[in-house]
Amino acid sequence: MSGSVPGFVPRMLVDPDIGLFRADERVFTAMLDGWRAQMLARGLTTETIKQRCQLLERFQKFTGEFPWQWGPADIEDFLAELRSGEKPISLKTLRSYSNAVAMFCAYVTHPGYGWGEFCERTFGDIPSQICFEWNMPRHTTDDAVPAKKRSFTKAELQRLFDYLDDLVDREYAAGSKRWLPLFRDSVAFKVCYAYGLRRREMTMLELEDFGPNPHVSDYGRFGALQVRFAKGTAGSGPRRRTVLTVPEFDWVVDQLRAWTSNGMRERFPTADRSSALWPSERGARMSLGSFGDAFAAARDAVGLPKELGLHCLRHSYVTHLVEAGYDPAFVQTQVGHSYASTTGLYTSVSSDFKQKTVQQMIARRITNLEDPDA
């Protein structure tokens, strides 16, 4: 059999008498094994691979059939049911699911792996691609970010940060031990905003992630931030990027100095367990959920909309840099987006900024008309 079946099929199917007992289930399992090996060779993370394989198993159980029997209607029915249940999945999840099925179909239909020829000989049918542009969710700027997800205005951020500062001062004056974790949370949220970090990126920061910018000595050791747990692409695991401290957010340098240089961090009994920038009261590092709860409590206390979550600080960073006149390519690099269109989704400039931009363009047009040589 190994001589007649090309590609990876002979490696996946050890038993030469595949047709004698539950051939369809064994071949499908072999297909998943082969796809898993392909994804490992591409450098994808084991967690991503596990989730994709589980999804294909779930899809197979939903259809009751196997890849060489699947058609476009099967994936449409599967996704339609997920979108119409009591808890419909988001467009982002829908897109992820359809992409996974499409990638699996691309694997089993590729002639280099030999599954088509093998299935035709064994089952009298061949697998085909079932995901196309006309039955997969489109990736558009309109649905990539929920409508209510937006940037904080500068006034909203001022209210939020003033509340946190006042809360720390009140607890400290009252002799309460709560002032220290409140101060930690306050600094963490300001760092998240001042560097445009994702929630996990902020949570995973270490003391040694900060370093000087040789071109801006005034910031000392806080001239640049090395983000080690940036979001990867296509399940490839965390990426790294360097975020420079910019003048519009240089106030964060004093916050970081107060947290790291004045012994504040070391007051936590768990601070010596690791170099985590944000130790917790009981563990070496604060959890993402704890930060999320603390941020939600502060947001609710000042009466801001519930849709303004911790991730919206990152949106605010992008928006406020654009409003300050920074080159969009620089902003894109700072936040680690692969595509300018993604950065554009994060931008929700204020009406004042739009009006000023229009007025500047009108003034420039008038100047050019009055003095063409200017």
List the helices and strands and how they pair.
Blueprint: H1 9-12, H2 23-41, H3 46-63, H4 72-84, H5 91-109, H6 115-123, H7 154-173, H8 179-195, H9 199-203, E1 210-211, E2 224-230, E3 239-244, H10 251-261, H11 288-301, H12 312-323, H13 328-335, H14 340-346, H15 351-370
Antiparallel strand pairs: 1-2, 2-3
Helix pairs in contact: 2-3, 3-5, 4-5, 7-8, 8-10, 8-12, 12-13
For the structure shown, list the relevant keywords.
single chain, 374 residues, mainly alpha, hpI Integrase, Chain A, 2 domains, 3-stranded antiparallel β-sheet, 15 helices, globular, disordered N terminus
Mean of pLDDT: 84
SSE order: HHHHHHHHHEEEHHHHHH
Structure annotation, total helices: 15
Distance between the termini: 81 Å
Portion of residues in beta strands equals under 5%
* Main sheet summary: 3 strands, antiparallel
Shape: globular
What structural category do the secondary elements indicate?
Answer: mainly alpha
